Amino acid sequence: MMAAVITVRGPFSFVRRLVSARLHKHCCSRVQAACLAYRPHSYSLTAGQQHRFFRTSYAAAGPIMQFKLSDIGEGIMEVTVKEWYVKVGDKVSQFDSICEVQSDKASVTITSRYDGIIRKLYYDIDSIAHVGKPLVDIETEAGQVEGPQEDVVETPAMSQEDHTHQEIKGHKTQATPAVRRLATENNIKLSEVVATGKDGRILKEDILNFIARQTGAILPPAFQEIRPPPPAPAVPSTPAAKPKTTAPSIPTPVVAKPVFTGKDHTEPVKGFQKAMVKTMSSALKIPHFGYCDEVDLTQLVRLRSELKRLSESRGMKLSYMPFFMKAASLGLLHFPVLNASLDENCTNITYKAAHNIGLAMDTTQGLLVPNVKNVQMLSIFEIAVELNRLQTLGASGQLGASDLTGGTFTLSNIGSIGGTYAKPVILPPEVAIGALGKMQVLPRFNSKGDLVKAHIMNVSWSADHRIIDGATMCRFSNMWRSYLENPASMVLDLK
After folding, report:
1. Would you call 469 a catalytic residue per the annotation?
2. In the sheet where 128-130 sits, what is the strand order?
3. Is 265 one of the annotated active-site residues of the chain?
4. Helices (DSSP H) in 298-343: which residue ranges?
5. Which of 19, 198, 203, 319 is deepest in the core (most CB within 10 A)?
6. Reported pTM
């Protein structure tokens, strides 16, 4: 009689009830004992035999973790998968390389966070992977708990050269994201750090010890390396041997390597700086003509020292700038084209009646250029009063729109911060500007040919070469210089 074979798939409790119902007469203790060994979801029963076996093997599957691509910095939101180091079914451990991705800035090797088995790859080679989306599924052991996504282990963005350096000759560094971040912030290549962790893993203490060796810094005891004591000097084997005399060794100087920890920051262009961007962008469309000269201020220094006490008695400090402005105004009366403006189409020139001479100021808000209105009508002392008012408002950031607009000609005192020469940029719609250098005591020859001590200042002019030629700029500069070198001559032209 042939045995009947029955194959049943289903839960084990259901199969057991089925077997009990149909083979009640043939069931015995052997069958019940044999039921302890079983195969999942597959059971074989041979009718008419005393030995019936229910075989199975059971392995509990662990949780499936989605390994996501975290932010790799520098605003990168998508990368190209260049190479997979694993395939479905491979077993991986923490810090094992998963894949290599390429952005427009760097090549990055992604490493595993979990111990487990690869169950799914989400991308093919040369596919685009997005930040925050899964890369692979990893079946982990039941005891592992998924942590925050930002802790996904991956190498930080690095240049192709650094990436190659760290994986040269098949050597791949192993470190947590915090350790890699610490190394990146201190410009340290992980391949140069001696690893003391398990399986060659680089620890935070290894980075700190590396920094300490480079800079000579003393670390706290928790981070100091334990080093064996130096070996004792060898004792001569023969006491009669004469010791050899060697030249004293010159200690090698240890140069501390600086550790840079600064970080870039970005802020919007706003306020006066934004206005400066707009003005200078327009200014550089003007063809500039430059001219430089030096001025002997020896007599002006003497005159100012005589007027200084008188000015202070009136409650005002007298500087050299009022003289420079007044001399410029007198020169503009003879060369009005320097006190003009040119329209955008370069078809009309407007000659300004007022001499609103601006003074470039270095303030906490940036470069500001307030102007003294109607210099042609003011005395030296009145110009000094107005300059003092503008400088006080500029220092406190309270200059008004009326103070900053309407200028027709500008002087920039770069000498106040130590400058000598400059190439000043014209402020549209003006057509000329001058930069005044610092005053220096230098040897010069006087009219008799004697070597004398002179107070010399350099001046640098820039003019709009579309309407101002070099000869005009030179003649104006010579007249301005003559007023300052012989300040008494200004009295004849003052109004």
Report:
1. yes
2. 107-111, 97-102, 78-84, 128-130
3. no
4. 298-313, 321-334
5. 19
6. 0.50
